[in-house]
Amino acid sequence: MNVISTRQLAKRYGKTTALRDLNLEVRQGEVYGLLGPNGAGKTTTLRLLIDVIRPTRGSITLFGEPMSPRLRGRIGYLPGELVLYDRLTGADYLRFCGALRDHADLGEATTLAKRLDLDLDRRTGELSKGNRQKLGLVQAFAHRPDLVILDEPASGLDPLAQREFHAYLREYIDGGGTALFSSHVLSEVEHVADRVGILLAGSLVVEDTVASLKANALRELTFTFAEEVAAATFSGIPGVQSAQANGQEVRCRVTGAVGELVRTAARFPLVNVTSHEPDLEDIFVHYTEERGDDD
């Protein structure tokens, strides 16, 4: 079942196109990471999904239905720029949010606050950026939503808090929840996301599992030989995108299987081979540079 489904979703602000014909599906029980440079359309997408702004065209269904007040109660949301009432304590703020949702039980909120080492008795105006972010996360999960939509959830969190939140998120998913989040912390996405989508200039340019993206990404193999070997020896091999020689070293950039490349290298006096396996950051940069987009 798709918890989130969009069809030809587009948003324009005057002459500026923020989102172009987005077809996005997020399945029940998965963590979907949305990537993209600043201005790519990530926050616009999340705001459209929770009905804060309306699309120029296209459609959105959540749990198979259009957005409604009833569905809002099944969704937890963390905005990218969290606004708090500085005179309220964290507990007061959570009670206020609970009243808006008609959900007075703060049991889940208290549990998560303890796990994140967040003091709910302090006024929000006294909290650091990291603790304000923790409070935002706590309110998003406080009413035990079926879906959470999180804009940069790791922003401001220290490594220990990030680790604890990731563990909690996995427990939430294992319990039947679904999560869509945007992030600039690519290591976070690689660690917790089941699938990722990359938005560039308002368009979804690639969507796949992290494992599949890495398996098909451009990787680099460097061969060191006992004698000089011409780079042209490797240039015609399937999958090899480029080959450069520097003395007794040949550096090849390749996609897909590397068996034929390695067999070719083994015909020469091979001393050493090293491989740089791509991570999600490499993949993200590759797509961004390929499209000529920047921040």
Q: What are the SSEs and their pairings?
A:
Layout: E1 2-13, E2 16-22, E3 25-27, E4 31-35, H1 42-49, E5 57-62, H2 69-72, E6 75-78, H3 90-101, H4 107-115, H5 129-141, E7 147-151, H6 159-174, E8 178-182, H7 186-192, E9 195-200, E10 203-209, H8 210-215, E11 219-225, H9 232-235, E12 240-246, E13 249-254, H10 259-265, E14 270-276, H11 280-291
Parallel strand pairs: 4-8, 4-9, 6-7, 7-8
Antiparallel strand pairs: 1-2, 1-3, 1-5, 9-10, 11-13, 11-14, 12-13
Helix pairs in contact: 4-5
Classification by helices and strands: alpha/beta
Helix content: 25-40%
Mean pLDDT metric = 91
Number of H- or I-type helical stretches: 11
The CATH class assignment of the largest domain is Alpha Beta
Poorly predicted runs are: none
Apparent shape: elongated
The SSE string, one letter per element, is: EEEEHEHEHHHEHEHEEHEHEEHEH
Say what the CATH topology of the largest domain is. Rossmann fold
CATH superfamily of the largest domain: P-loop containing nucleotide triphosphate hydrolases
Query: What's the story with the biggest beta sheet?
Result: 6 strands, mixed
Strand order of the largest sheet: 6-7-8-4-9-10
Q: Distance between termini?
A: 35 Å
Number of domains: 2
What is the beta-strand fraction? 25-35%
Cα radius of gyration in angstroms: 23 Å
CATH architecture of the largest domain: 3-Layer(aba) Sandwich
Number of DSSP E strands: 14
